[in-house]
Amino acid sequence: MAKQRILIVDDDIDLCNMLSRYLTFKGFEPHCAYDGADALEKVHENKYDLIILDIMMPKIDGYEVCQRLKIQREYNAIPILMLSAKSTEEDKITGLKTGADSYISKPFEIADLLTSIRNTIEKSRRSHEELGIKHEISFHFESRFSYIEKVNELIGQLFLRTDLAPDEIWEIKLALHELGINAIEHGNKMDPDKTVNIFCHIYDDRLEFEINDEGEGFEVDNIPDPTDDEGICRDRGRGLFLVSKLVDSIKYLDGGSTVRLTRFLSGEGRVNGRFNKTRK
Length: 280
Known about the structure:
By secondary structure, the protein is of the alpha/beta class. The chain folds into two domains: 5-128, 3-Layer(aba) Sandwich (Rossmann fold), CATH 3.40.50; 134-279, Histidine kinase-like ATPase, C-terminal domain (Heat Shock Protein 90), CATH 3.30.565.10. The chain contains eight helices and 13 strands. It has helices at residues 13-25, 36-45, 62-70, 89-97, 110-129, 144-161, 166-187, 238-244; strands spanning 5-9, 29-33, 50-53, 80-84, 102-105, 134-140, 195-202, 206-212, 249-253, 258-264, 270-271, 274-275, 278-279. Strands 6-7-8-10-9-13 form a six-stranded mixed sheet, covered by helices on one side. Strands 2-1-3-4-5 form a five-stranded parallel sheet, with helices on both faces. A two-stranded antiparallel ribbon has the order 11-12. The N and C termini lie far apart (55 Å).
């Protein structure tokens, strides 16, 4: 059985060498890159089962490396484990938003890193095997991290299951990020006893997403009209206005506690080559 190949990307050469020796001992085949540009070149030349990626590096930082890879269908399926000294909650959220599959802060215990490596590879393998007619995600609020991780998994499914262009898939991801975080923070008011649910339906001609929370719902009358470009200047609802520009249809149901997004896969719903935005 072939060894699993791991790319270690970090400008700390001593750390790279230490991890390389350890992973070799554990039965992996590690490669090293010492900056973001070198990492991208190696990924183009080799097939990897996992990338361990530092954030603060010369030439191209880890955030950009991650986003460049995750936006390409050819490389989106490679799991990326961010390993960084940037350890605040916002740092972790930024890393996950670029597409990272998991995040470990420095300093770290080597045993914890090994566990995370194995878990991340296994999670990626399962997500590519569990393809169904309907992809459904439902989870209880734990943190914004778990929500973004679930969205990343869903985006990986869209690369596998649809012919949408990478930039179209990335727009869907931005829309889901905005609405999901809004549901957690403003819908459920950060209440850990309330649930946020995501449902994704993959049809032949379209994708439909529903996000619902257990809060009071959006104030639908105050949501900016997606046909009015002045919506970008509003203090409230700006994120929802931007979402309306990223999808073909956005509807608010159940008093605003459920949002349904539609993205067409072909001609239906498009007007003169552009998407037809609707709101209900």
